[in-house]
Fold this sequence. Notes:
This protein is of the alpha/beta class. The chain has a single domain (3-252), classed as NAD(P)-binding Rossmann-like Domain (Rossmann fold, 3-Layer(aba) Sandwich), CATH 3.40.50. The protein is 43% helix and 15% strand. α5 (162-181) links the parallel β5 (141-146) and β6. The chain is globular, with a radius of gyration of 18 Å. NADP nicotinamide-adenine-dinucleotide phosphate binds next to α1, β2 and α6.
Amino acid sequence: xxxxxxxxxxxxxxxxxxxxxxxxxxxxxxxxxxxxxxxxxxxxxxxxxxxxxxxxxxxxxxxxxxxxxxxxxxxxxxxxxxxxxxxxxxxxxxxxxxxxxxxxxxxxxxxxxxxxxxxxxxxxxxxxxxxxxxxxxxxxxxxxxxxxxxxxxxxxxxxxxxxxxxxxxxxxxxxxxxxxxxxxxxxxxxxxxxxxxxxxxxxxxxxxxxxxxxxxxxxxxxxxxxxxxxxxxxxxxxxxxxxxxxxxxxxxxxxxxxx
Length: 259
Ligand SMILES: NC(=O)c1ccc[n+]([C@@H]2O[C@H](COP(=O)([O-])OP(=O)(O)OC[C@H]3O[C@@H](n4cnc5c(N)ncnc54)[C@H](OP(=O)(O)O)[C@@H]3O)[C@@H](O)[C@H]2O)c1
């Protein structure tokens, strides 16, 4: 088998939470281009349908589940539904997450903190439990948790530190699951994106160009990333190209974290 063949995902199925837009959509596209069939999860049916139509043009099977994985019970139900589709899930991308609010920590309402932990951390735990159990039974699988450069460090000039805290915890969960599941054939890794030009970020930076300049000033490569630049990292970690990689975090940030 040549080296590029090791990146192929033909005959495999990948479940991507938040696969209808943004970074999840870009990773889903890359996985499909590498040959994977997809199960995409999102809250808005119309956006999911649009993504499915575009991705199906690559010749892959695309299943859709409309749900809010920020609700732990719903996240569990999503996984049960995905398993019931009858295709073994070979790749799980726990992508849903986000900062969403910018409260100061000293006055952060606890109920909101917990809700956002469910979004950023519990969703990945629940999906890893449910889909991971099936992977462990088959003795193979790859779980990819989407963390952030805000895991190992605090982003300057912004509040909402539940995000830094939850992403750091997700990195810890990644290492722990990797250690526990490695002997049973399931690899668990993380991708830590830096700043990317998703549609909401484009809008946000258009309104606040000074923030974009400040952020880009911290990036050695001098620019934000394009979502498509995250796709190859997902294909690497999903595929046999990374057969000896587990517990790792692949940082894709234009060098933000080197300074
Ligand atoms: N964008 C960045 O620059 C950046 C940087 C570092 C890390 N990250 C991380 O990368 C991941 C993706 O970020 P993004 O910016 O692409 O996110 P996003 O724009 O907020 O969401 C993208 C996808 O997630 C779905 N989604 C959001 N909340 C959901 C929920 N509760 N249940 C089910 N689906 C949900 C969205 O569809 P619906 O709205 O229809 O549900 C959409 O498909 C996140 O974990 C984020 O923390 C992003």
